[in-house]
């Protein structure tokens, strides 16, 4: 089965530095196959056999701890789960000079549509939707500083998500499809 592992907080602001070539070797060491890394922020596409996502995530977190001495949270999504996020993203959403659009991948512990009730959403500024496994959010660049979603940074919820912009999210899906074929 094809999966993506989304690592939280690596190679950001000079902290938790991990070389992607070495990370690929770590994945291979714990029997992940067809391993592809994408950009430096911890996006790893791979295949794995019989283990559940939870078991895979635990194996990867342990291996990263052993090989790099870092306690990094790993969110694992199957191709089918990831596809549902992609299908929920409006094609018009971009991450460019005009618009900021992100996908906040959720830890299993908070993966429920009630998560929206815990966020500050300014309906006249923010477009926010829950899809299983993620929150998708878009705002015009001119309103980013007015967005209610900026309040998520530093919150308890923020420490239970890993964020990718829509461009990265879409590219990961393309890579997952290439591995599947």
Automatic annotation (TrEMBL):
SUPFAM superfamilies: SP0830-like
UniProt-listed InterPro entries: DUF1697
Coiled coil spans: none
Signal sequence bounds: none
Domain of life: Bacteria
Pfam family, one: DUF1697
The name this protein goes by in its record: DUF1697 domain-containing protein
Biological source species: Perspicuibacillus lycopersici
């Amino acid at each position: 089965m094809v999966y993506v592992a989304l690592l939280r907080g690596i190679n950001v602001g000079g902290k938790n530095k991990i070389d992607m070539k070495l990370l690929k070797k770590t994945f291979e060491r714990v029997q992940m196959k067809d391993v592809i890394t994408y950009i430096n922020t911890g996006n790893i596409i791979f295949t794995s056999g019989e283990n559940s996502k939870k078991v895979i995530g635990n194996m990867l977190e342990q291996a990263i701890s052993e090989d790099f001495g870092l306690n990094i949270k790993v969110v694992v999504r199957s191709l089918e789960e990831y596809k549902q996020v992609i299908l929920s993203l409006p094609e018009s959403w971009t991450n460019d000079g005009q618009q900021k659009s992100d996908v906040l991948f959720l830890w299993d512990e908070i993966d429920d549509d009630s998560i929206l009730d815990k966020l500050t959403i300014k309906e006249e500024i923010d477009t926010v939707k829950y899809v299983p496994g993620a929150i998708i959010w878009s705002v015009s660049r001119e309103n980013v500083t007015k967005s209610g979603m900026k309040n998520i940074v530093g919150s308890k919820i923020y420490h239970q998500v890993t964020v990718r912009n829509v461009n990265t999210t879409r590219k990961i899906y393309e890579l997952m499809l290439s591995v599947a074929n």
